[in-house]
Structure formats: structure tokens, C-alpha cells
Write a structure and sequence with these properties.
Three copies of one chain form a homotrimer.
Chain A lengths: L1 H28 L6 H7 L8 H22 L3 H5 L14 H10 L3 E2 L4 E7 L2 E6 L2 H4 L9 E8 L3 E8 L1 E9 L1 E8 L2 E8 L2 E5 L4 E6 L6 E9 L8 E2 L16 H8 L3 H7 L8 E3 L2 H14 L17 E2 L7 E3 L2 E6 L12 E8 L3 E3 L2 E3 L3 E8 L1 E9 L40 E9 L3 E4 L5 E5 L5 E8 L6 E3 L12 H8 L3 H10 L5 E3 L1 H10 L5 H12 L4 H13 L4
Antiparallel strand pairs in A: 1-23, 2-3, 3-4, 4-11, 5-10, 5-12, 5-13, 6-9, 6-11, 7-8, 7-10, 9-14, 15-16, 16-17, 17-25, 18-27, 19-26, 20-23, 20-25, 21-22, 21-24
Chain lengths: 561, 561, 561
């Protein structure tokens, strides 16, 4: 016994040192430690070699949150430096920190990473910067942008066209969307859960027809002119938004409209309320009346290829996965023809409070996700390459901690490839309403809802064709399909032992989350009887006392997870 | 009355000041003011806030024209600096001015922007530099190049292949085009108005079979190897053009051709007349005889997909738009199968003297236009983004005048997005035979023919599939399709008033141009009776005297538009 | 006679001077002139204006070989600088030379240009750096990478997925390949000559089932996430390779697998043998047994589009070309459906010892070749543009020798286009097992096998659709299809004379190589009777004595070709 304990001592000391160090750091940083201690406490949950970093990030996150609170309390000066209250994450931080931030979490974009591109008393459109500017690792989706429209009750978004296809998801509220394509107006009502496509160049306008709720639309823009850039053109308009018509020279305007300059100036001189304007009850009624005339087109038989027929209600469909831990609703080119042009799948994941998605990856798609509601966190497993991404890559901004070998960049453009299999970096980020994140091809991800509320995420998956969602846990775990010999060789363990672990989880798609599953365990006694029996059996077959002791101690040291 | 006049005074003073300032600038710059005053005089035609710039540009344009005249009078030294008389716009200007030039009109390329890539006594091929080098805003068409072939009467362009697909339009003359594809020679006669495709890698040769006229072919090259780069390979040849065959090592040549080095050197030592050589009458006759044997293949039934069947005569088709102001002839993948591979539409716009195209934009296509004949001007309406384009973007070359807010470039690559709806910059450029211009997706454009002659423009529209030409004026004006409520809200004016303006123009596609329409008005009395009546009616309904006075004064001040 | 000789003198003097100069250079450089003299001697074989360069390159090549020999004798320090014995060509040379190297032969990559991305006692995966980093001229294939897997007898490559499609060719040995796609495991045996596709995201594992031979697989990776970058993800694994599963936080792992941390740590703590591990005889047998159950699927009827059905044996097919000089085996989307997704053709050229491929080019494809066996050399004919490529282009690294005109780079990005037809630069490179080379669209190439052994090359041709292999010599020479008049005009010679040269070679596809064909000639007497007669006939018809003398002298001077 004594010798066993002695042998475990070094390990435990290291662990304790780590935790104490973390605690010290935490204590020195915050006085109000409502959250920090909790964040730091969670770090023990991480693979051992990532714990120190976890504590560091906890600390940084808290500092940020602190700064934010400060700012909200009245320190808006900083945030306003660039003329908009909204600002941008970068404003509030030193250049150096900003760079670190970006290189550390190249795939997660907080609410403050969005920039307002349309501003109006009645609403706004906010957009993420182009992905390829955010990180070199995202240049594969440089043609796509994320944007969010918010419009006040009974407001009208004036007609415009853009040089990008728009795929929108109605996140909240209800309204009318109208497009003019090939000389035809199509006008349809939309409500929460609807997906719709407004193709590039089509004159498009919307109205929030509800009298009380905001209309919120999350969308991706598939740019077709300058990669990653989109622009709005207002045909109808006046001074604000300025009409493109009034930008032609006067003599051309007169000739084009067979009308005197005076009348034209008068017409183009009136609207100055901005892009999103307040509508009267009657106007809203008229817009809705026209829309109902067009109506929700039936989706079957399918319209001729390439023709738009109005929205597709995700939530009215059968979910492709559904259990008490969550539901997944999906629309792709097969179910919703309007998406065919864009090779995009739109899906909505509704993860029950305290539950999580089973770990999975997309075989071909890059997933662009936007959190609609709730709170939680995501974990994205990235190979080392991910560290070299972001703009800091150019200046060798990879932090020394995480780069294992000195590297010489052979050219400004190159990111050195690491040797395969040498470990991963896990991006772990809290997410809440307004967070966007990207999951690249092949990267395993897990999305965990906090206990307080459901986590709702809308996902736009580009490169959708032939994509396969590959699960790494649960009843449909792809690894269960390995040959017995492959399991033995890959895990260096008897196939039976591998199977026991891979087969234990019977649910699939959505699973009980970490806290939920632990409470459940507790309910069933500290451990399930079955598992204990199995472990005891193993114990009999030579498992030393050492591990058991270590386990017990760990539980005590960390406050009994 | 007096008070009304007093209220209009500030406005008129500003206007007068602007005009006087412009005149002063004009007067100080030129002594021979044949043209300048006219250009400057026209500036009053522009939206008020763009007038000062208009005057500036007038001035610069004139200076350029002046320099050009100088050069032509004997000052060729400058232009010859790079070994070719043709030179390039940039040569004749300081680096600074050049940068400005490019950032101001990123979409228009004068005759001198072309560079000679094939030079010969009997003709030339001139090409525009790659678009993505000209402006970042054009990187969406980086795979395409524009080139123009000119060949003397009875000349022969020796066989070659390139690493780019060639889509050609015969702008003038007649000849024979032959390609060797899949081991088959196809040889066909072409004449003015024909479109043909020579795919990448196909050995291609041409002859001008006419004894008196030049053969002129405008083409775009769709590069498939290095984006935006194309290269010629001469299989048959000698010293000039050097044959690729003679570039293999001698022993390989001997083995490949089972022939002695001496004979090979003799064969490859003869041709030294260049890429375009003079042909005998007999040779031309033989080439034409073979071509007529192959003949103009019928276009129906369609040949198997991907197979080339010779030229397609644009001018022999029914125009898709035709009135006395102009005609539009079009060929796309549906009418001309050879284009299917390239997602390109070729069209010819023939705009009558004094007329203009109705303002329109392309919903998905980027239009690459080349002026075949005539004179006129184009106006392209660009969002602010356009200012940041061009290479000068990197150094913050955006002129202070036009950037509304201080901007920090977040990375070398980034172009800051402006807020939407804050106005546009209109690129206005004179065009004449040899001018190329690009109209990006969604950008409204109008093409105006001068009174002297028809303006003929050949257009290559890339991203042709599902493109929609959206008109912003005329009977098919897309804005007429807006709901009544949408009109009211967008223009902040009664729908009836909006409709009056949008419905006044009854023609469509091509319209009377500015001068033509004004003369017409004059003919019908200073104003049409109908319109006057309407305005009077409005006047009765509360329209103040102020505007009327302003109108009258404006007309007097500007010399009676 | 005397005057004739006098007139030829200048020409001969120049020639002699060149040769003497070359010899002098050669003599001064090497003492052990086993090879050099032979290489230099061959330079006389080159077109006159390229000879001096040829000699230079001979010299440089020898120096390299010398250095390599040195290094192998014990000077490995240099090569090890970066932690791997394999190193990289660049390590052993000064930065300056390296740049030259790359700009001179942007299309050829020696064995040492590969970098190890997977390293293990039981094998390795080596990959070429991304093409667009190697040369700007190769940015058209930036989405593709070349890699080579070598696995010891009875070894197992652990399951992983990548964010790239893999198209593999089994170059040596035999084994089992298994993929898990759409929840199904497909497992098939492969042997030398098989082509197979493992799509992105599919869990894939392999085994070398042979007890004595290495398994070697040459493959291209078609990247779909970050252009030109691929990453491995190991689902099953432990410490080395680290499993992605163990990178999730502990609480997530516990919840996902419904298993205690202890058990998970135990499972993920075992495998530490690396990515390629030794398998037991029994395990190999089990893997093969499962594979044989799945079996080699029949290729007809074709499986539903997009579905993978196992390998395709190139060598079991009828070659598309076959004669005693070589055979070409091909697989494309039509014959092997798995390739359809990737627009890639895979082919194997087996060139008999001493023979060569007929000179040819691809009309649309870019060919990525990897030498499997044998020795020889390739010649690739490149327009001048090729010189500006590579990274040195940025610093104007083009050697003065070969740039004909002073050039101003208009932007950092631009490569000036040369005027067409002004000659080519021929890249000539020795190749042997492990050499990779790229032949861009339209570039003529010839591949010559040394006399010692067959030269075997596997080719991956991207942009395969509608590609045409265009031959420049042999019975199927495309130039033979030119009109008579075109021949006359292009060569400035009577069509009959052109035909005599173009028709002499009766074989096609693969031809006797330089040495072989010369020995053959010798066997038939110094010259074929027929040819001599023809030449005499020509002589009678006015051919001067001058040329004949020159010929004779040349033959004497160069040691009797």
C-alpha cells in the first residue's frame, strides 16, 4: 500500500500544483469570483496536457467579460472610437492580445465580431468580416459571409439588390419577403423556422408585419462578384438610402425616365429615413395581402429547376434526428429546390437544456453556425495546423507554448505542415445568442447546452453535396464498424475491451450532456451497478490498486466531480 | 414673391459658385477650349455633390488628350520607351497620377491599356493585362482575358495552340478558321458578326481571305492553367515563331521524326516572317476551298455535347431587342452549344447615333465589353467599395474627397466595407473604338451613343447561366413591379406619383439618348403639353413657387438645357 | 569549292568555340569525369542557342550529385538540420542557389523535395509541399498534393480520416484497404496496379498483408477544406497517434461514452507505437478475410453515381497504347466511376528500356507524374513565362541570360507576359524512382527511358474531362492534319518537304529512343538508302555544296553522331 501510494505521489503533486497555480491565478484576478472559480474548476476536466492552457483561457475570458461590464457601465468611449457603438472585439483590446485571440480561436466569432453594414432607427444588418481575412484556414469559404438582419415591429426594408445570393433563416418573428426576378414579383409570408433564398441581383424587400416582435433573420451571403464582398444597390430610394437611379447624370436620367429634372429631383429627394423604415398598419396589411395572394407554394411537384417558389419551413418537417436530448431539422437541395444552386444545407439543431450533440464531424462540408438562443459551449478538435492560421501566422504569431518544433517558414505564404498524429488543440468556447462559429471539414465537434435553457443553433453547411455526418460516439458511432483486428491494432487493446467502451452509449445524435449524465449517474448511485461489476472483474484480472487510489484522490482533490 | 426668391438664393448661389469655379478651372487650363468648355458645361448635368469631381475629371481628361496629341505630333519618344509605339497608358503619366487613374476608373480600359503580345508586319494580337492585376475588385474574372487580333488583307496566322479557351467575335472582315481537335481538322469560313470557339489545346490557325480589308477579331481567353495567364505554342514554325519541335534536344528530335538533324534544322530554319505572314492568292484560295468543303454546319440538330461545329452568326439571328434606337443580338449556351463549356454569353449591342441603352444591370453576370465602332460614353454606378479597389487600395490611395470616414485597414488584404446606402460613385467614361470596359454583377450601367455614329459594342458576359438583365427604366422597368406600399415606403411619396415617373417612358431596351430626347422635347415645345398639365395640377395641389423659380433660373444659368 | 568552304567557316568557328568552351568548363570542374563529359557531350545535341546553358546545367547537376555523394559518405549533418534524415533538397544548398534551382526547373521535384508527414518505425508518408508554394505557375493545381505511403511487410496503418479526397495507385506490394462511408465498411484487397479512391472524411485504414515486400502507394490528395492543405484525424488511437476522442474535455468524453474517465484514459493510453504499426499474422489474416468477403466488386453494371466500390486494376485492362516501345494504361471517370467526382485520370506509362514517349501535350489536363521505377530523362518545353515563375519571380530572379528585355514589374503579383513566339526554354531533367514532375496544360513533353531498365511512370491528370492527348510526332502526329497551304505557310517550305519529315516516323505513342534509334540507323548503314537517295535528288535540284560540307564537318567535330 505504502509503495503504491509513493508511486502515485509525483503524478498527484503535479496535478495539485497545477490546480493550486490555477486557483492562485484566479484569486489574484477577480474579487467577485462568481464565475471564475467555476471556469477554472472545470479545467480539471481537460486532458492533462491542456489544463494549464485551460486555466489561462478562463482567466482571459473573465478579464474580457470584466472589461465588457465596465464598458457597459458607462465606459463606451473606447467602443465608440470608430463611430459606432457596436464596435468590434478588436477595439477593446491591445493589438497584441487581439492577434493572440484570433490565432487561438480562429473558428469562433463573438457577437462583437460583427460589424454593422446597415444602420437605421428601425433596425440593422450586421455582418461578419470575410472569413479569409479572419483566418487563412478559412479561405475555403471565402465566397460566403454571415449576416444578421434585425427589424423593428412594423418596419419595412426598402427594395435593393446585392451581388450575392442570400440564404436566410427566419430566427424570430414573422413578415413578408418579396423578390422581383425575371420580371415577376414573388411575395410570400415568412415566419420563424422558414428558410428562403433571394438570388443575387433579384430586387428584394421585406417587411416585419408583426406589431410587437422584432423580425430576426440569420443569413449567409454567397458572393458571386468579388469573393467575400457584397454590396447593396438601392433602386428605389432617395437621399438615404441614395438611389442608384439618381447617380446617373441628369441628362441620362431625364432621357431614361422622359421626365424633367425637377420632378426626378423631387422624387429622389424625399426618402431620407434610411434603409429600414417604419410602415403604417395599412401598408403592412397591403404587403401581407399581396403575399397571401401568391401564397406558400406547394413544394410538390417540384418547380422547374432554378425557379424560386418561396420559403421552406424547417420546423414543419420531420426532424432527421429526434430524442429527448435534441432535434435536428434539415433542408437540402433535395427537399428544397431553391438550395440546389448553392450547394448549401440549412439545418436547425435544438439541443435540450443540459444535453449535447454526440461528437461528430462532416465528411465534406464546412459548417457555419449561428447561435439563435440559449447558452452553452462548443469544443472543436483541431490538428496543429490550426495554430498557424489567422493573420498572426505571417509574423510567426504561433505562441511558443504550442509549437513543438522550431519552424522556418519557407515563404510568406506557407504554413508548415506538422507531422500527423502529434496531437490536437481543442478550441473550447462559450457560445450564446449571437455567437457564430465555423467547423471545418473533418473537424470533430461537440455542442453542449447549459442547464438553464435549450441551445438553438442554425447551421449553413457549404459543400453540402454527398456530405456525410460521421458520429464518433453513440449507437451510430462510425468506429464501431472497424474490423476486430483494426480495433485491436488501433487501440492496442483487446477488441472486446474497445467494444465495451464504444457500445456503452445507446442513444444517438443527441446525448445527455456532461452535467446531466453525471447527475443521472449520481441518481443511480455513484456508479451504475453494471459498470462497477465490470470494473471489479477487470480489477480481478490484474488491475493494480494504484489507479483506484489515484481516482479516489483525484475526486477528493477536485471537489468530487 | 420676394420671400420666395430669398429662400431659393442660397441654393442658387452654391450652384453658381460651383459652375463659376468649374469655368475658372477650365479657363485656366486650356487656351484652345474647343472641347473643355463643353465637357465642363456638361457637369451641371450631374448630381450636385458629384459636380466638382466632374469638372476635375474633365480637366484631367483634356490634359491627357493634349499630351496624346503632343505625342502624336512627334513626341513619340515617351511612348516608345518600352520598345513599342503602342505603349501603355501608364507610360505617359507619372506614377502617382497613374495610380489615381486606376483607382478612379477601375472598370474602363482605354485602347492604350492593351499590350501587344504578338507583333508582326502583317498584324498583331493585343491583350489587356489580367483583370485581377488591374483591380482587386475584378478578381472574380481573373480567369478571363481580353485580346484583339488584327490581320492584314491576305495574311495567315500560323498554327498554334494555347492553354486557354478562345471565344472570338469577328468584328470586321472575313476569313477562314481551322482547328485540329481529337485528330480531326475542322475548317470554316467566318465573316463579320460570327462567334466561334477554339478550345484550349486545339491547334488553331486563321487566314484573312479578303484582299482589301483587315480581319479583326475581338476575343476573350478563358485561361485554364495559370489563372489569368495564357501562352502560345507554335508546333509548326521555324525561327520566328520558334517551333516547339525544335526545342527538344537534337537526339530526341531525330528519334521522334526518324530524320537527320540536318533535315530538321533545314525545316525549322526557314520560317522567319513571324506569326502573321503574307499568303499568296492561291494559298488563300486553297484554305478557303477546304473550309467550304467542311461548310457551315447546321446548328440543328445539336451536335453531341462538347463538340465544336464552327461559327454562329450573331447578326443572322433575330435580335432579342430591336427598335429604332438600337438592337441587341445574343448567343448563349442554348443557342450555340460551343459556349456551354464556358458559361459565357456573347452579345452585340448596336446603339443608334444619339440613342442609349436603358439603364440596366446583370443579376449574375460580369460583363466584359469591347467597343467595335462609334463613339459615346458609359456610366457605371458603383457603391463606395469601388473606391478602395485597384492597386492603390493597398496604400490607402482612396482620395480623401470621397472617403467619408477615417478608415483603418485591418490587414493589407482587406477592403473595408462601407455602410450600405451611403451613396455611390458613378464612373463616367468616354468610349470609342478599342475601349474595353467591365460592368460587375449588379452594377447599373448606361451606354450612350454620340450623335455622330452608331455605337457598336460586343459583350462577353461570364457567369451567364440564369443571368437576368434587369432594367431600371423603360416599359420593362423592374421597379414598376413593386407593390404600391413598397413604392410608397421606398420613395416616401404617393404610389401614384412614383408610377407617373416610372411609367412615362414607353420604349424599352434602347431609348432616345440625352441629346436626342431633349431635341425631341424642344420640337414638341419646351415641354410636352401633357406633362405641363400634370405639373400644373400638382402646382395647384400645393407645389410652391420656389421650385418653379429655381427651375427657371437654373435653365438660364446653364444656358438653356 | 574554296569559296564554299570559306563561307561556312564563320559558322563552324562559332560551333567549335562553343564546344571547346563547354569542354573547358567541363574539364575544369571535375576530375572524375565518368559522367560529366558524357552529359556535356550530349549538349551538342541541343538547339544551338541553348547549348551554353546545357553545359552550365550539366555542371550544376554534377556538383549536386557530388555533394550528395559526399553527404552519403558521412556528411549527413547538413541534411539532418531539420530533424529528419530525409531533409529536403533546399537544405543542402545556399539560399541563392536554391532559388535558382527552383526558378530553373519549377516543374521537377526530386526525391528530396518530399517531406515526411507521417513517420513510424513501420513506414512513412511523404508529401510534396503545396504546388502553389513551389511555383506561381502551378497555382492552377493548388488543390492537389502528391504523397507516397510506404509500409513495411505485415504492418497496419491505423484508421484515420482526412479533409482531402485520396486517389491512390498501388505501386508495389499488396494489402487491404478499408473505408467506412455512410455507416458502411467496405474492405477490399489491393495489389500492384490497382487504383482506388478514399473520399474525404471516410474513415480509412490499410494493411500490408504481405510478409516480405513493402507496400508502396503513390497518391494525390484533392484537398477540399483549405486549398493545398490536408490534415489527418485519428479517431481510434491512443497517445501516438493521439486520438481525437481524447481531445474532448473529460466530462464530455464521459458523457459521450457513458464510461468513467479512468476507463477512457486507460483505453486512450495504450497505443503508442505510431500511425503505422506491426500486425500479427493472425490479425493480417482476419483483415484479409473480411476483405475477401466484400471482394473485388464487378465494375459492370456501374454502381449508383458517387458510390465507391473498391479498386480498379489498371494493369488488368487493355492498354490504350501498346507497342514494343511501351504501353499506356488508363482509368478515367468513364471506366472507373469512383474518379468521376474528382475530374482526374490515372494512367501508367511503361516505357521500354531505351525507348521514349512520342512528344505530346495535353489539351486541357495538368499532368502530375511520379516515377515508380527505372531511370531516364524528361524534356518539357516551356514558353518564356516559365522563367518568371517560382518564388524568385518576386525578386526579379529571372536570370539576365534568358530575359530578353528589361522589364518593369507593374505589381508584386504580376508576371510580365512575353511576346509570343520568341522561343522556349526546355526543362530537361533526369528522373528516377521517386521523382515527381508536373507538365502544365499545352506544354510539350517527352519521356525517355535509359537503356538499362524500363521507365515506369504513374500519372494523375487533373482537369481530365474532354482532355485530348495531342501528339507532335508519329503516325498520329496532329500536324499532319494541317492543310497543305498551312504547312507551306507555317514552315515556309514546300508542303511535300514538310510531309516527308512529318511522315517518316510510322510508329506512334511510344517510339525508339534517341540511342536506340541511332543504333538502329547504324545497323542499317550510316544512313538509310532511301533517305540518301532523296537527299541526292534534292541536291540535284539546287541544294548547295555548302550545307553538305557543314554537315560532314559537324559530324567530324562532334565525334560522329
Amino acid at each position: 500500500m505504502a509503495t503504491a501510494r509513493a508511486r502515485t505521489a509525483p503524478f498527484l503533486l503535479v496535478l495539485l500544483a497545477t490546480l493550486l497555480c490555477a486557483a492562485a491565478v484566479a484569486a489574484s484576478s477577480w474579487d467577485d469570483d462568481r464565475e471564475p472559480s467555476r471556469c477554472v474548476r472545470r479545467c480539471e476536466d481537460w486532458p492533462r496536457h491542456q489544463r494549464a492552457r485551460c486555466v489561462q483561457e478562463c482567466r482571459r475570458e473573465e478579464q474580457e467579460r470584466e472589461r465588457e461590464r465596465e464598458r457597459e457601465r458607462g465606459g463606451h468611449e473606447l467602443g465608440r472610437r470608430r463611430g459606432e457603438g457596436s464596435g468590434d472585439e478588436r477595439e477593446s483590446e491591445g493589438e497584441g492580445e487581439q492577434e493572440q485571440e484570433r490565432s487561438r480561436r480562429p473558428y469562433v466569432f463573438g457577437r462583437r465580431s460583427f460589424r454593422r453594414v446597415v444602420r437605421s432607427e428601425q433596425g440593422s444588418v450586421r455582418a461578419l468580416r470575410p472569413f479569409h481575412e479572419a483566418s487563412k484556414l478559412l479561405r475555403g469559404i471565402r465566397d460566403y459571409r454571415v449576416a444578421v438582419l434585425e427589424a423593428n415591429p412594423r418596419s419595412f426594408i426598402v427594395p435593393s439588390h446585392t451581388d450575392a445570393h442570400c440564404i436566410g433563416y427566419v430566427a424570430q418573428g414573422e413578415g413578408v419577403v418579396a423578390t422581383i426576378e425575371n420580371g415577376e414579383r414573388r411575395s410570400y409570408t415568412v415566419k420563424e423556422g422558414d428558410v428562403f433564398v433571394a438570388p443575387a441581383g433579384a430586387v428584394t424587400y421585406l417587411a416585419n408585419t408583426d406589431g410587437r416582435r422584432k423580425l430576426v433573420i440569420a443569413k449567409i451571403l454567397h458572393t458571386i462578384s468579388v469573393p467575400g464582398k457584397f454590396q447593396f444597390f438601392f433602386g428605389a430610394g432617395g437621399k438615404n438610402p441614395e438611389s442608384i437611379l439618381s447617380s446617373f447624370s441628369k441628362s441620362v436620367q431625364r432621357a431614361a425616365y422622359k421626365t424633367s429634372s425637377e420632378r426626378l429631383e423631387r422624387l429622389f429627394g424625399k426618402q431620407d429615413k434610411g434603409i429600414i423604415v417604419r410602415a403604417s398598419e395599412e401598408q403592412v396589411r397591403e404587403l401581407r395581402r399581396h403575399a397571401s395572394e401568391g401564397g406558400h407554394a406547394p413544394h410538390w411537384p417540384l418547380p422547374p429547376f432554378g425557379e424560386s417558389r418561396g420559403p421552406y419551413s424547417l420546423l414543419d418537417q420531420r426532424p432527421s434526428i429526434a430524442n429527448r436530448h435534441g432535434q435536428l431539422y434539415e433542408a437540402d437541395a433535395r427537399s428544397f429546390r431553391d438550395l440546389a444552386d448553392h450547394d448549401v444545407r440549412v439545418s436547425l439543431a435544438n439541443i435540450s437544456a443540459g444535453s449535447m450533440s454526440a461528437p461528430f464531424y462532416n465528411s465534406r462540408s464546412i459548417k457555419i453556425a449561428y447561435v439563435l438562443d440559449g447558452e452553452g459551449h462548443v469544443e472543436i478538435v483541431c490538428p496543429h495546423l490550426a495554430q498557424g492560421g489567422g493573420e498572426s501566422g505571417r509574423r510567426g504569431g504561433r505562441s511558443e507554448r504550442w509549437s513543438r518544433r522550431g519552424e522556418e517558414e519557407s515563404s510568406e505564404e506557407s504554413e508548415e505542415e506538422e507531422e500527423a498524429g502529434q496531437g490536437y488543440r481543442t478550441i473550447r468556447a462559450r457560445v450564446s445568442r449571437g455567437t457564430a462559429f465555423v467547423v471545418p471539414v473533418g473537424h470533430p465537434v461537440v455542442e453542449v447546452a447549459s442547464r438553464g435553457s435549450n441551445l438553438q443553433i442554425v447551421c449553413f453547411e457549404v459543400q453540402a453535396d454527398k456530405n456525410d455526418r460521421v458520429y464518433l460516439a453513440g449507437a451510430n458511432n462510425a468506429l464501431r464498424k472497424l474490423d476486430g483486428a483494426a480495433k485491436e491494432l488501433a487501440f492496442a487493446a483487446p477488441a472486446r475491451e474497445v467494444d465495451e467502451v464504444l457500445d456503452a452509449q445507446r442513444e444517438q445524435g443527441f446525448l445527455p450532456g456532461p452535467e446531466e449524465s453525471e447527475r443521472e449517474e449520481e441518481r443511480q448511485g455513484r456508479r451504475g451497478r453494471q459498470e462497477r461489476e465490470r470494473e471489479e472483474e477487470e480489477g480481478r484480472r490484474g488491475r493494480g490498486r494504484r489507479e483506484e487510489l489515484a481516482e479516489t484522490f483525484l475526486r477528493l482533490a477536485t471537489g468530487g466531480v
